[in-house]
Amino acid sequence: MVNAMTLCPRLAVRAILLHENRLLLVNAWAKGSDLLCAPGGGVERGRSLPENLKREVFEETGLTVSVGAPCLVNEFHDPEGTLHQVDLYFRATLVSGSLDPNWKDPEGIVKHRRWVSRTEMADLNIKPDSLADVAWGGQSGETGQGPITYDPLEPIQR
Description:
The longest helix has 13 residues, at 49-61. Strand 1 and strand 2 form a beta hairpin. Strands 1, 2, 3, 4, 5, 6, 7 and 8 form an eight-stranded mixed sheet that branches. This protein has 158 residues and is of the alpha+beta class. 28% of the residues are buried. The protein is built from four helices and eight strands; from the N terminus they run αββββαβββααβ. It has one domain (4-155): Nucleoside Triphosphate Pyrophosphohydrolase (Alpha-Beta Complex).
């Protein structure tokens, strides 16, 4: 029998963290993929979304951030399995810290973290596809505070 909870979408939070006009990205999978995404992860029950995001960013990068407005809702699923995840992206600001190559993610998932320019993103395998436009505000180059962007459900990529 399938547990009803396995059928519910998993909720995660992610940070759009720009610093010196570079976006922070981390590896998306622990096992051999070149896929990059914004730092973040699963929401723990009983904590606010911003609290969860601060915790996730610190765990994955060692950085302390403040959390601003939501800016993107992205969802993906595994057509062959039960995974369906909804990622809520928030704008974040660096409060303290710097990337340390010796930092260890306690869950062992994030092993690579890097700041990238919008130009560099064009040559990288990044999800979601709208990440650069959301981070830099479309083609204008201004970090927008406009309406939240929604990415329709797409199959998971590894």
